[in-house]
């Protein structure tokens, strides 16, 4: 079953051209003969045919314009110059942009609602191919007019009402804590700032902001006292209905779909009196989801969810049995390590590695996140039905837990521990294998002298510790100049001083990631070039890194920033000076020049 699921995912990823009729014949023959090989082959061919048809539909010629009734396939996402919509019109999905003057019409709307639109269609360029395919996006739609119209399906109305009540229950939270709370409970990341997303990514906690199997498990745990009072078949019916509604409330994220379908299959198997293993349930879930939507395999969230679940099912229990320490420590550590090992190939391909701080950060944050999720679907929903100050009072435990999780993410992202790239991961893998071999029964049963066995155990432990220390040693920056991203340059002085120049084309999110991946944990001087974009990016960087001086190029500077003037600013061998634009005889400052020297080793 697991092999069939893997082959089906591979077929969906490559999607060769296969006739659906031929695939159906193979499947029916296998079903009649009860031949598992033919059944698996038939399913693989069906997925190939459906996947190829979906790709051809995406690549079909686009119309020059669109006019008609569209349905929102996701909640509107506010942006700097308007509002972004994921819109389905005439059976095709578009990434639509609403001008800022019309955004007030669509921003209060929610998934499943309808709008009457007209707009120009163009190709969708610049977006990752996997992201586009997983969302079935045919192109980009620049809207000329948008009006509310059409009726919303009852299930969307109910799901949106629940979503709104949970969101309203967090209105008393500060803005940052509110966005984090909604991410933990509903997977709603629209209000999260760039720096908050970065901190969770750099500390290995991004999975907490995407609703997953943990949320589904807590939902069923909350509903269990009511479900248990029903007959078995009604338990299954209302359990599956609850899972389907929760999937819509959380906007059908791939991790939620995986968890909900797994839970539904497990409930059905219990009702049928046939207990299935975890791997079998996972395999059946993969097959069901990929047959329904073959392009789902291109979703990074789906890949991570499947990999993490498989890792937990295969490795968590054996690791817990072999790790030292009490059970309350071994079990969470084993779960964290199993998930990280299983998702490592995807994360290395996606981000270049895994944060070394991810393990301790998860041990500190995951238990609190679980409590927030459970409180969110109970107390949080109730808080949305009442008014302040009572709502604020009942939400105090959730707010404290959210603050704790945010603190863990912030401290984790500022840790000196590096990003574990393939070589470091290999060293950690060797160290882990050595420790596992030492704790195995085969090593204890080796027919060698006890003194030699003890010496061998001590040597292996020292070697494993050495490999661990080598793998997690902090990154040291070499003196010199380096271009991190477009519009951002980092200078490192001979004595370790670090100066960053930020231009108007620098993107805050990309710059934060580049600085962190390069090993930067503090900055002595940040210089922002003229323009609001550069100023905003520099201020975001200053929030994350321990910046000692924030300078602006210009005689006037925003609050919290110092004009660079004609002063020479020094930090650890790096000097920052500004040159006047004498060519035009204007009294304004030109771009700063950074000089590296061995003499200026103090700020």
Strand content: 15-25%
Output the strand order for the largest sheet.
9-10-11-12-13-14
Profile the largest sheet.
Answer: 6 strands, mixed
C-alpha-based Rg, rounded? 28 Å
What's the average pLDDT? 84
Q: Which residue ranges are poorly predicted, with pLDDT under 50 across at least 5 consecutive positions?
A: 582-589
Number of strands: 17
**N- to C-terminal distance:** 64 Å
Shape by Cα distribution: globular
| Share in helix | 40-55%
Tell me the number of helical segments per DSSP (H or I, 4 or more residues long): 22
Structural class: alpha+beta
Give structural attributes.
603 residues, alpha+beta, six-stranded mixed β-sheet, five-stranded mixed barrel, 17 strands
């Amino acid at each position: 079953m697991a092999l069939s699921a893997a082959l089906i995912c591979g077929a969906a990823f490559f999607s060769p051209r296969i006739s659906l009729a031929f695939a159906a014949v193979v499947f029916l023959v296998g079903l009649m003969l009860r031949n598992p090989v033919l059944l698996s082959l038939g399913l693989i061919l069906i997925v190939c045919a459906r996947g190829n048809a979906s790709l051809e539909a995406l690549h079909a010629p686009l119309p020059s314009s669109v006019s008609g009734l569209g349905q929102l396939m996701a909640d509107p996402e506010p942006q700097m110059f308007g509002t972004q919509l994921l819109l389905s019109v005439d059976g095709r999905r578009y990434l639509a942009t609403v001008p800022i003057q019309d955004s007030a019409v669509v921003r209060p709307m929610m998934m499943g609602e309808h709008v009457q639109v007209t707009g120009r269609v163009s190709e969708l360029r610049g977006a990752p191919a996997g992201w586009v395919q997983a969302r079935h996006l045919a192109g980009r739609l620049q809207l000329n007019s948008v009006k509310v119209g059409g009726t919303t399906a009852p299930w969307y109305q109910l799901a949106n009402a629940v979503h709104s009540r949970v969101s309203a229950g967090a209105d008393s939270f500060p803005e940052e804590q509110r966005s984090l709370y909604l991410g933990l409970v509903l997977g709603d990341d629209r209000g999260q700032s760039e720096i908050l997303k970065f901190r969770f990514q750099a500390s290995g906690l991004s999975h907490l902001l995407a609703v997953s199997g943990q949320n589904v498990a807590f939902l069923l745990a909350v509903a269990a006292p009511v479900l248990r009072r029903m007959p078995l078949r009604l338990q299954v019916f209302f359990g599956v209905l609850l899972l389907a509604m929760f999937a819509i409330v959380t906007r059908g994220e791939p991790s939620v779909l995986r968890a909900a379908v797994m839970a539904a299959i497990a409930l059905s198997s219990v009702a049928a009196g046939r207990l299935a293993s975890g791997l079998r349930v996972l395999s059946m879930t993969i097959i069901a989801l990929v047959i329904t939507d073959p392009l789902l395999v291109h979703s990074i969230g789906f890949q991570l969810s499947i990999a993490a679940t498989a890792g937990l099912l295969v490795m968590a229990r054996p690791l817990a049995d072999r790790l030292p320490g009490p059970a309350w420590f071994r079990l969470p550590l084993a779960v964290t390590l199993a998930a990280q090992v299983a998702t490592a190939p995807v994360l290395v391909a996606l981000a270049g590695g895994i944060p070394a701080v991810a393990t301790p950060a998860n041990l500190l944050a995951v238990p609190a996140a679980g409590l927030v999720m459970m409180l969110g679907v109970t107390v949080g929903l109730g808080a949305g039905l009442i008014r302040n100050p009572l709502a604020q009072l009942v939400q105090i435990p959730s707010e404290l837990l959210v603050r704790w999780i945010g603190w863990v993410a912030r401290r984790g992202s500022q840790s000196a521990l590096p990003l574990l790239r393939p070589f470091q991961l290999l060293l950690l893998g060797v160290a882990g294998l050595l420790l596992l071999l030492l704790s195995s029964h085969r090593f204890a049963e080796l027919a060698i002298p006890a003194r030699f066995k003890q010496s061998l155990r001590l040597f292996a432990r020292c070697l494993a510790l050495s490999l661990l220390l080598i793998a997690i040693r902090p990154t040291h920056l070499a003196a010199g100049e380096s271009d991190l991203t477009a519009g951002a340059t980092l200078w490192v002085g001979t004595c370790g001083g670090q100066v960053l120049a930020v231009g108007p084309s620098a993107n805050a999110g990309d710059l934060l990631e580049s600085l962190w991946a390069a090993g930067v944990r503090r900055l002595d001087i940040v210089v922002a070039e003229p323009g609001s974009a550069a100023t905003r990016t520099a201020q975001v960087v200053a929030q994350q890194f321990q910046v000692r001086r924030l300078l602006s190029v210009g005689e006037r500077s925003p609050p919290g920033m110092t004009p660079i003037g004609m002063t020479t600013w020094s930090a650890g061998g790096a000097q920052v000076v500004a040159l006047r634009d004498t060519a035009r005889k204007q009294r304004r400052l030109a771009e700063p020049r950074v000089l590296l020297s061995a003499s200026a080793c103090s700020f």
